[in-house]
Design a protein that fits this description.
about 300 residues, alpha/beta, FAD/NAD(P)-binding domain, 2 domains, 5-stranded parallel sheet, 19 strands
Length: about 300
């Protein structure tokens, strides 16, 4: 049986990937949307969206579901797959191989692979991932009802999730290594106005505590070398993210942080391979900018394939 050759295969179903699917499929291109996790990317883990034009406030999961429905409305197909390699032949046909050994062929590949959350390099950190250490307040916040928790980070994600956790936790310690936050002022003001959030500034995580083989709290240390024990039941980590560039690392240009460098049409240096969303080098990483990336790539894919077929 001959393998299907798709016009476009999109890796990743966050806002950028789903928008690319809308534009590619509306252009009449056979489109496959691949995702190793739940559709929606980080939207699924975001409680509130207040900067999506035309909607003053909506929930991240609700917006993600609307985008997913729209992404498949014009014939695009969704499949669950974790892609581990991307190879391009002399005819500029791309072969993608998944973790379970399946292969997919495409004329165009759009990388919407996003980022992987950074974490702490401490001896017992991995032991307590998912057992006291979380990277998603929306997913795990309810487990800490009536308990104290700590949030680490200083950007919008940390600010928003700290505030979200106040509906469950009795107290939230927001620990940041600097004196000033780097998030939006509106989010900073909301955090400072909460009587359930205590700011622990100029401080870093020093030790993860354990008792009877269970997570039991953390020790933080400030710039003066003073240590403080926080007897929390859990900690939530939002200290940045690493671009998921593995499929093209060494094949196209990356910046010093590992973000894929693209041109104004979202093209990489590999013919027929585009990159969009948080994985690329850009000034602002927001839902609205991700969808713009996806629209550009999906539209230009049509022109690329038209020229390829001539």
């Amino acid at each position: 049986m001959e393998q299907t050759l798709y016009d476009v295969v999109i890796i990743g179903s966050g806002p950028a990937g789903m928008t690319a699917a809308v534009y590619a499929s509306r252009g009449g291109l056979s489109t496959l949307l691949l995702e190793h996790d739940a559709p929606g990317g980080k939207l699924v883990k975001t409680q509130e969206i207040q900067n999506w034009p035309g909607i003053i406030e909506t929930g991240g999961p609700q917006l993600a579901y609307s985008m997913y429905t729209h992404a498949l409305a014009y014939g695009a197909i969704f499949d669950a797959a974790s892609i581990v390699s991307l190879e391009t032949d002399a005819n500029k046909i791309h072969t993608l191989t998944s973790k379970d050994g399946r292969t997919f062929k495409a004329k165009v590949v759009i990388l919407a692979t996003g980022t992987q959350e950074r974490t702490f390099d401490l001896p017992n950190r991995e032991k307590y991932d998912g057992r006291g250490i979380s990277y998603c307040a929306v997913c795990d916040g309810a487990f800490y009802r009536g308990k104290e928790v700590a949030v680490f980070g200083g950007g919008n994600s940390a600010l928003e999730e700290a505030r979200y956790l106040t509906q469950f936790a009795s107290k939230v310690y927001l620990v940041h290594r600097r004196q000033e936050f780097r998030g939006d002022q509106i989010e900073i003001d909301k955090v400072k106005a909460s009587d359930k959030i205590e700011l622990v500034l100029d401080s870093v995580l020093a030790t993860i505590l354990e008792e009877d083989n269970k997570f039991s709290g953390v020790i933080v240390e400030n710039k003066a070398g003073e240590k403080r024990t926080l007897n929390v039941s859990g900690m939530f980590v939002y200290i940045g993210a690493t671009p998921r560039n593995e499929l093209v690392a060494g094949k196209t240009a990356l910046n010093n942080e590992g973000n894929i460098i693209v041109d104004e049409k979202m093209k990489t240096e590999i013919p027929g391979v585009y990159a969009v969303g948080d994985v690329i080098e850009k000034v602002l990483r927001q839902v609205v900018t991700a969808t713009g990336d996806g629209a550009i790539a999906g539209q230009d894919a049509y022109h690329y394939i038209t020229a390829m077929n001539d």
